[in-house]
Amino acid sequence: MKNPLNNTVLRLLLLAAVGLIACLPLPDFWVTQLNYIGLYSLVVLGLVLLTGIGGLTSFGQAAFVGVGAYTSAYLCTQYGLSPWLTVFIGLAITGSSAMLLGVLTLRMSGHYLPLATIAWGLSLYYLMGNLDALGKYDGLLGVPGITLFGWDLGGGKPFFVLTWVLVLLGAFALINLLDSRTGRAIRSLRTGALMAEAMGINTLRFKIGIFTIAAMFASVSGWLFAHFQRTVNPSPFGLKMGIEYLFMAVLGGVGQVWGAITGALLTKLLEDQLQVLLPKLIGANGNFETIVFGIVLVLVLKYLPDGLWSLVARWLPNPPRAEDWTQAAALPERTKPEAGSMVLDVRAIRKQFGGLTAVNDISFSIRAGQISGLIGPNGAGKSTTFNLITGVLGLTSGEVRFRGQVVSGLPSRQIAQRGISRTFQHVKMIPEMTVLENVALGAHLRGGKGALSSMLRLDRHEEQRLLREAAHQLQRVGMGAQLHELAGNLAMGPQRLLEIARALCSDPALLLLDEPAAGLRHKEKLALGAVLRQLRAEGMAILLVEHDMDLVMDVCDHIVVMEFGTHLMEGTPAQVQASPAVRAAYLGTDEDTTSPATQPEEVSA
Prior knowledge:
It is a single chain. This protein has 23 helices and 14 strands. The strands form four sheets. Strands 10-11-12-7-13-14 form a six-stranded mixed sheet, sandwiched between helices. A four-stranded antiparallel sheet has the order 6-5-8-9, covered by helices on one side. A two-stranded antiparallel sheet has the order 1-4.
């Protein structure tokens, strides 16, 4: 992930700026304002990761702020524990609660997830307000301030320094996280979950992970809030504040790390100024600023959906990623099957959708060092067969064996772990990521560093090896000059090549290509044919669905023909071209007038 603020010098400058601001003779009012902006920013940083990057909408983050605040306040007032200890206890309780809630709710999609976050947000709010131990709605009083070696950090400029150092460290940690193997998986959740699962990424686990991280950011904000206010009650942790946090994220730029701080800053300043100005203009008292915020939100969503930070980002330098992987060691490779050995054995697989049988008892096999073609007219069931083999769809009956082991019934990510990789009929990629980053998703299973290592920048050695592999596969398919191009800017042909490079990145023993030549120009098709022959020479087994019969007949050793979900015939390219049954399937006639190789392209089922 490219980011103009993602380097050590600028990070040190930002931290130094916090110290410089603390030395300025600012009025106490503005110091307090900056403190609140920092508290809000921590929560919104979590929402940027959860909602903007991960695509999961939560209205309940304020409740997690309350968990962190109440945990620290209760332990300090009742047991005299140090705030520096209670912050970690609060993180443990918040993290555990978030993981439990995530397991229960993150399988939901559509509008059900936001409704679920509202439900548990309200539940936690009323739980805080009804427990005698927490003082009910009066809350807890006498919360001590934060001290360090006798220095009071609980208010004013010392609290400003503490809060903003934590805000910047949190922002840097998120930038590190997004620029990593784990970050690429997170960035695929919003628009590429199906593809991510096919690359071996456990999307549910990553959803729970970012949900937990966002909750822990909120918990730290709650800890600071409790010791800044010196009192805690349920009022700041209700649904209204949860909505306001989301407003801050959208206003600043819900997909931008620095948009979190921008949104918190503008919202707090606007709120305070509007509370003074609007009653004077209208001549009456009331929460008129809420109306203005609603109008602002509608305008931002319509005219500036990427938030206000996007206006700033346009003017910031955005250099390409430094190619620091050139000296990295190659990744280890899996043991490949012996040439000619059975790799895939498909046994009478069937798929029914209600009363429709899309695939009807299809059987065939593929051997190492062999390119097999799967062809047939429109509606033949070729792509459905692909999806059954790779676990995207479940079998109605039948069995799929890969290298002697039954893989039918396994989820697609577990099938990918065993060494099957694929492309898709309709290209699936992350448009906002670079070509290199998209391809590196294919190598996800070949790394092991997690979120904490990424945040602390302890994954650099592994990251360089993964990027080296991605760059190598891009060079292999002729896209070495487009490493740093945004994938969304590519034409259809290069997008197809990107998918092939991504599939090769997983070091598969079996490669399934669904219409890889669609959209490619003549020279690109020739280059693709050369790549497929090279892979065959290396012992890889390839199953190819393709409309371009010239390519199929040129590179395939064996061809399986389907018609209306059934197995029509199989054999060598010469046998298929000579078959009257194949001609009848393509032409609807038994007349020997035209061979399949000369037919126009059709759209696969």
